[in-house]
Write a structure and sequence with these properties.
The complex is a heterodimer of chains A (403) and B (330).
Chain A lengths: L2 H6 L2 H20 L7 H8 L3 H9 L8 E8 L6 H13 L4 E4 L9 H12 L4 E5 L19 H4 L3 E4 L12 E2 L2 E4 L2 E4 L1 H9 L1 H10 L4 E2 L11 E5 H5 L1 H10 L6 E5 L13 E2 L15 E2 H14 L4 E2 L2 H25 L4 H27 L1 E2 L3 H24 L1 H5 L1
Parallel strand pairs in A: 1-9, 1-10, 2-3, 2-10, 3-4, 13-14
Antiparallel strand pairs in A: 5-8, 6-7, 11-12
Chain B lengths: L1 H15 L7 E7 L2 E4 L7 E2 L3 E3 L4 E4 L4 E6 L2 E5 L3 E4 H8 L8 H14 L4 H6 L30 E3 L4 E5 L7 E9 L5 E7 L3 E5 L10 E10 L20 E5 L1 H12 L2 H5 L3 H14 L3 H14 L4 H13 L3 H8 L2
Parallel strand pairs in B: 9-15
Antiparallel strand pairs in B: 1-4, 1-6, 2-3, 2-5, 5-8, 6-7, 10-13, 11-12, 11-14, 14-15
The chains are: A alpha/beta (403), B alpha+beta (330).
Chain lengths: 403, 330
């Protein structure tokens, strides 16, 4: 064995590393599933280091205003007559694609419904919203899309508005495609993007991921999307002004509820995202569903995806990193036992800051998600496990003393 | 390795030399907001899009405008006039916008200095008292641009003409009066008027007994391109949607029941009888008929302060505070 390789080989450090990871795996399985620790668990399960990048280090206004996607606020109570009239006005503005993020789950008023249906069908490129029903565990697939009445949705382009998340957790993922009894269905945002730029969606599907991470740009609150309201399109004076500046021409227009996060507004379709200023603990939802769709569409159009390391590679990296730390700590323990505690603790703090910086740096500039939680936990535990091993385990097992 | 260093150096260089866009962009407008380029120029409604730094943005009550400039987003939500150039200047921090590295170290230092916990709150509670409070503002809720004057609500007869009135919302304004079906929002009656009163022949409208309707008045700009088409659902532009139900029997049956009462029969004074009638009708939710009874009593004895006070109290119970103030002559 080469000399430098021999220096790196240490059976005691290997044993300590194994002990550390045995503890980490046990911790994951037992502690994070104990109800007594729920307040802690809920916080930690819904937290990722990169959330800090989004909420504290990333300034959405740096992204500027997205020009291809326009949000049209329908208000929280959708009057079908008004919606139809708005869409008629919208048609004059010649958008490339219109995505209606409103569920037409039932027929209400024959006259209004017929007017709306006629208007919807007069659009050359329109995408309607639907929902995936509950997952059938036995059949291992979803039933056909729901909450879109065949009267409106029959023969139209449909997309499901579901995200991959628990009811109150942060929306980080979405499923571009989902198998149902009626075949493969596309997510609402994917369907809209496909109607606008099919080659971009082909690029997304080539990635082959069952789920994709959402690369958030911003929201209308941060000024990243133009937001218009029904009233502005239905007011004849404003409409003429809007028509004159041709902002809607050949653009994607998403129609649905986007409020102003103001007191008194209905708490409707508001969700948590990593852009939330409070990245952990109790907080209020920070983004409307339609804005999340807009972010996904923006990501698809820009081809600006988040890159993730494979899980196995992260595990290998975490083991190597842990081993390196244990080895270093043991060397310090053997060579300078007097300053051992102080040096090791300082080393841990410095390493933690460097790793945190590295994770933030990679995510901020390259959108590379490095989920190094195991590595960080191993770093925290390394000192204590070396101490436990040296003062407790090794002293009691003869074989280890002679190793 | 050299390539990696080069890459990082380039990134650092771009951070330092980052140039922000100099344009001012309005990204969203809610409520009534206008703009004008110079004091001599006419005001135009503000819509999302680029706006000149020399322009003035005028915000009415409850209006909100998101403005982006120099890659910073600011929210204008106070009523008033804002010269964009001055506003931009006032809201641009003196230093350069922080880069990623600046923000990272700011985050770390905040983590060390801003350690708010229960113990800190106990020790420095004065600093935390204005951060949250319980309770609501008196008469909270949306403020409407038009206030109703007559209480046309509750159970209504569809037999006669009903007088609607509301307070003026300014000069040169058209009022778009509408009666709609509550369930379907279908339009039943519509009139564009310049006056603040309107008599509607309920007996000629297709109003169904037992069905709920609402009425409202919307402001329209006089001289707008197509006033008949303009739609808005901004509360600042309209009156509240006042609901009523058609119930032809309620008034006649209530009056019959009232007339059968001994107390009513024993009363000789017409004004007192009218007040009793009004009170009884109000109890039966025949609000408009009760209002008519109060009005009749008030006309019969114009100097009777008790009648005036009873009418004012009735109007306040219907949420028409301004109408009550008008009755009391304040």
């Amino acid at each position: 064995m080469k000399n430098w390789l021999r220096k790196l080989y240490d059976p005691h450090s290997i044993l300590v590393t194994v002990l550390i990871f045995a503890f980490i795996y046990l911790f994951r399985f037992l502690f994070l599933n104990m109800h007594a620790l729920d307040p802690f668990n809920y916080g930690i399960k819904d937290y990722e280091i990169t959330d800090i990048v989004y909420s504290q280090l990333h300034d959405p206004s740096d992204e500027g205003v997205q020009q291809d996607i326009i949000l049209l606020n329908s208000g929280s109570e959708v009057n079908r007559n008004r919606l139809a009239k708005t869409l008629q006005q919208l048609q004059e503005l010649e958008p490339a694609v219109v995505g209606i993020d409103i569920l037409f789950d039932q027929i209400r008023d024959t006259r209004q419904d017929s007017f709306l249906n006629e208007t919807l069908r007069s659009f050359p490129n329109i995408v309607l919203a639907a929902e995936l029903p509950l997952y059938d565990q036995q059949k291992k697939q979803f039933d056909s899309l729901t909450n879109c009445h065949p009267y409106f949705c029959g023969g139209q382009q449909l997309g499901f508005t579901n995200f991959v998340s628990e009811e109150t957790s942060t929306i980080r993922l979405f499923a571009p495609l989902q198998a149902t009894t009626m075949g493969l269905e596309k997510a609402f945002s994917v369907q809209v993007a496909e109607a606008y730029a099919p080659e971009r969606v082909a690029q997304l599907l080539q990635r082959g991921g069952k789920v994709e991470r959402i690369n958030y740009t911003g929201s209308s609150t941060f000024g990243n999307f133009y937001k218009y309201s029904y009233d502005q399109l239905l007011d004849s004076v404003l409409f003429e002004q809007i028509k004159a500046n041709a902002r809607f021409k050949d653009k994607i227009v998403l129609v649905g509820f986007v409020g102003n996060h103001q007191p008194g507004e209905p708490d409707l379709d508001r969700l948590f995202t990593p852009l939330n200023q409070r990245y952990a603990g109790k907080t209020l939802p920070d983004m409307y569903g339609m804005e999340i769709h807009a972010n996904i569409i923006n990501m698809i159009l820009d081809g600006n995806y988040i890159f993730e390391f494979p899980l196995w590679l992260l595990e290998v990296l975490a083991w190597l990193y842990c081993y390196a730390n244990v080895l270093l700590i043991r060397r310090i323990y053997e060579k300078i036992p007097d300053q051992f505690h102080g040096i090791t603790r300082l080393l841990q703090i410095a390493e933690f800051l460097i790793i945190f910086f590295l994770i933030a740096f990679l995510f901020y500039f390259f959108r590379i998600q490095l989920d190094f939680a195991s590595g960080i936990l191993a770093l925290v535990l390394a000192y204590d496990f070396v101490m436990i091993y040296e003062s407790f385990i090794r002293k009691r097992i003869k074989y280890l003393q002679n190793l | 390795m050299r390539h990696l260093i080069l890459c990082i150096s380039l990134l650092l260089a771009t951070q330092v030399t980052a140039q922000y866009t100099n344009a001012c962009i309005v990204t969203s407008v809610s409520g009534e907001a206008t703009t004008r380029l110079s004091s001599s120029q006419e005001e135009r409604p503000l819509i999302p899009g680029p706006v000149s730094k020399d322009a003035t943005i005028i915000l009415k009550r409850d209006a909100r405008v998101n403005l982006m400039f120099d890659n910073r987003t600011v929210l204008l939500n106070e009523p008033g006039k804002f010269l964009v150039r001055d506003y931009v200047k006032a809201n641009t921090p003196s230093g350069k916008k922080k880069s990623f590295f600046g923000r990272f170290f700011q985050f770390l230092s905040d983590g060390l200095t801003n350690t708010s916990n229960t113990k800190t709150m106990e020790n420095y509670h004065e600093q935390y008292l204005n951060k949250s409070s319980g309770g609501i503002k008196g008469f909270a809720g949306t403020e409407y641009g038009i206030l109703a004057c007559t209480p046309v609500t509750g159970r209504m007869q569809a037999r006669s003409e009903v007088d609607f009135s509301w307070f003026s919302a300014g000069d040169s304004i058209l009022y778009d009066f509408q009666i709609c079906d509550f369930q379907s929002d279908g339009l039943i009656y519509k009139a564009m008027v310049t006056d603040t009163t309107l008599g509607v022949p309920f007996n000629k409208l297709a109003l169904e007994p037992g069905r709920k309707y609402y009425w409202m008045v919307e402001k329209k700009r006089l001289g707008a391109l197509n006033p008949m088409f303009a739609f808005t659902d901004d509360p600042a532009q309209r009156s509240p949607k006042v609901e009523f139900v058609i119930d032809d029997a309620v008034v006649s049956e209530s009056i019959k029941a009232l007339e059968a009462m001994e107390e009513y029969q024993e009363t000789d004074d017409e004004v007192t009888r009218l007040l009793m009638k009004a009170q009884y009708l109000e109890e039966q939710q025949a609000i408009y008929s009760a209002y008519q009874a109060y009005q009749e009593a008030s006309q019969l004895d114009a100097s009777n302060t008790l009648v005036k006070q009873a009418l004012a109290a009735f109007l306040i119970r219907q949420g028409l505070v301004n109408a009550a103030t008008k009755v009391l002559g304040h």
